[in-house]
Write a structure and sequence with these properties.
Layout (H helix, E strand, L loop, with lengths): L1 H44 L6 H7 L4 H16 L4 E7 L7 E8 L15 E2 L9 H10 L4 E7 L3 E11 L5 E10 L1 H53 L16 H47 L13 E8 L7 E9 L2 E9 L3 H19 L5 H13 L8 E9 L4 E7 L5 E4 L2 E4 L19 E4 L5 E5 L1 H4 L10 H10 L6 H16 L8 E8 L1
Antiparallel strand pairs: 1-2, 1-6, 2-3, 4-5, 5-6, 7-16, 8-9, 9-10, 10-11, 11-14, 12-13, 12-15, 15-16
Helix pairs in contact: 1-5, 5-6, 7-8
């Protein structure tokens, strides 16, 4: 923790120093630019513009020129300038110049040598290509211009240029004042050193104060609290009384009182948890038994009827919880009639499982009585409506197949449409679905008849198949189920159910299963 405090203080100090340095630099640059401009105008006041053209043509330094040059040299020395230059460009490319005046301060730049009157220069002005633009602004456009230049060789300086104009406004030359930035750079360095030393001192003082506060306000009470919590864990919730030494009024004091209270609450909680764990274990055991009982109630053998080769049949039910509310059943009513049924009880868990057992038992008991599918559903519905205080209901698809003729009679109580493969194509067996079982007494159920031929297939399922959801909350859907069924034409009944289940798992990925998934596949041979 102290390391973070040190880092924080250092960052704050650096930020303050950087901001101060930036402001100081901008201010010094501005002031030196003004300072350079003032000297440029002062030098300009000593120059006779009407004589510039004569000096450029004759290169003759008369008494007036010498007096002016002496004044310029005096200004250069007094202002601690590096140079004052008055030049005339010889062409529009500004790559050749004629010097009218130039002074140099050897105390600033001991290698500087002024150009004599009339001398020409063909290299870059002041050694910088970019200064051509400054010359164009001053000489060609007649604009006063100052610029801060950071030269890697000679160091930073301010270059101020003013046009030399005749009385009629004609620009005849450009005057440049070059002022080095030696003094402000030295002041900046002093400022940085002072800021750095002050930051270190302030940081160390803050860290010492912070460490002192940490020891007496945090570490000491934390030591007592840690000792007591360790003793609490090792001795079954017992405390030694060390928390009485924590007299803080802050969060540590609150924590100390909370640990004392926790000792009492934890003892009570452990006793309650022991009782609850035993109860949960009992419930878990009973749920496991219920799961096994429910699984044994549903036919799972494959082949379902090994002694018959006129059809292939397989079904499976995977509950979303320990026990499910889906049901399926198939059995031979006699040697020539096979009953198929799939149902889905409202809700999940134990209540749905109990209602599922009742429904399956009623369907089976009525099915063996040679009733029609509509009569089986009507009779079962009436019995489920009796004493149905919980208002539970069940959807159901039920059909009876005459194996010798292929005639299939079926009825549907609000259940999803089955998928039929016939005449070389898979399609939904769409019929009007009647009311679910357990809702209203004396409900009538329509009965439908189709004829199966060699190779026809029937897939009956619950909505847990089409409503299986992936992590993007997309449904598996009836369209995907139909496409998945089309890939199973060459498979037997068991492999068909397995293939569709794999497609569902591939679609849902890591998403949880929220509903029971039940499928029954039948192939008429």
């Amino acid at each position: 923790m102290p390391a973070y405090v040190i880092l924080f203080c250092a960052l704050v100090a650096c930020a303050i120093g950087f901001i101060g340095y930036t402001e100081f630099k901008n201010l010094s640059d501005t002031e030196y630019t003004k300072f350079s401009n003032q000297f440029a105008y002062t030098a300009l006041s000593y120059i006779n513009p009407d004589k510039i053209s004569e000096y450029a043509q004759t290169h003759h330094a008369d008494e007036e020129w010498k007096a002016t040059n002496e004044k310029l040299r005096y200004i250069t020395d007094v202002g601690y300038l590096e140079s004052i230059s008055v030049i005339i460009p010889e062409n529009e490319e500004y790559n050749s110049y004629i010097y009218i005046f130039e002074t140099a301060n050897t105390s600033v730049n001991f290698t500087a040598t002024p150009h004599p009157l009339g001398s020409r220069e063909t290299k870059s002005l002041f050694g910088k290509e970019s200064i051509h633009d400054n010359l164009m602004l001053v000489y060609d456009l007649g604009i006063n211009h100052s610029e801060y230049i950071d030269d890697d060789e000679s160091g930073p300086y301010v270059l101020s240029g003013v046009p030399v104009k005749k009385s009629n406004g004609e620009v005849v030359a450009a005057l440049f004042v070059k002022k080095t930035m030696t003094e402000p750079i030295f002041l900046r360095q002093r400022y940085l050193r002072a800021t750095f030393i002050t930051s270190i001192v302030i940081t160390l003082v803050i860290v010492v104060i912070y460490i002192f506060m940490i020891i007496f306000n945090i570490l000491r009470p934390l030591h007592f609290i840690t000792f007591e919590t360790s003793h609490f864990a090792e001795h079954g919730g017992a405390l030694t009384g060390a928390l009485k030494k924590v007299r803080n009024k802050d969060e540590f004091g609150i924590l100390a009182r909370s640990v004392e209270k926790m000792s009492i609450d934890m003892t009570n909680y452990i006793n309650e948890l022991t009782t609850m764990t035993a109860e949960n274990q009992r419930i878990s055991t009973e749920l496991n038994v219920a799961t096994e009982i429910q699984a044994n109630m549903l036919p799972t053998d494959y082949p379902a009827y090994p002694d018959r080769n006129d059809f292939d049949l397989f079904a499976s039910m995977e509950p979303a919880k320990e026990v499910g509310g889906d049901l399926y059943d198939y059995f031979m009513i006699d040697d020539d009639h096979l009953l198929l049924s799939v149902g889905d009880v409202s809700g999940k868990g134990v209540p749905a499982a109990l209602f599922m057992v009742i429904t399956k038992t009623l369907l089976t008991s009525h099915g063996v009585q040679h009733l029609s599918p509509s009569e089986i559903l009507r009779t079962t519905n009436n019995q489920l409506c009796e004493n149905n205080a919980s208002s539970m209901f069940v959807t159901c698809w039920l059909g009876i197949l005459t194996l010798s003729t292929g005639e299939l009679r079926f009825a549907n109580s609000a259940h999803p449409h089955a998928i039929l493969y016939a005449d070389g194509q898979f399609k939904y067996l769409e019929t009007k679905a009647n009311l679910m079982l357990g809702a209203i007494e004396n409900t009538s159920y329509d009965e439908h008849t189709i004829t199966l031929r060699h190779g026809d297939r029937l897939l009956i399922y619950t909505d847990g198949v089409t409503e299986a959801t992936n992590t993007e909350n997309e449904l598996f859907s009836e369209a995907r189920l139909l496409e998945s069924a089309k890939k199973t034409l060459a498979l037997n009944a068991k492999d068909t159910v397995k293939s569709i289940r794999e497609d569902i798992d591939l679609f849902t990925g890591n998403a949880d299963q929220f509903d029971d998934i039940t499928m029954l596949d039948f192939i008429y041979k």
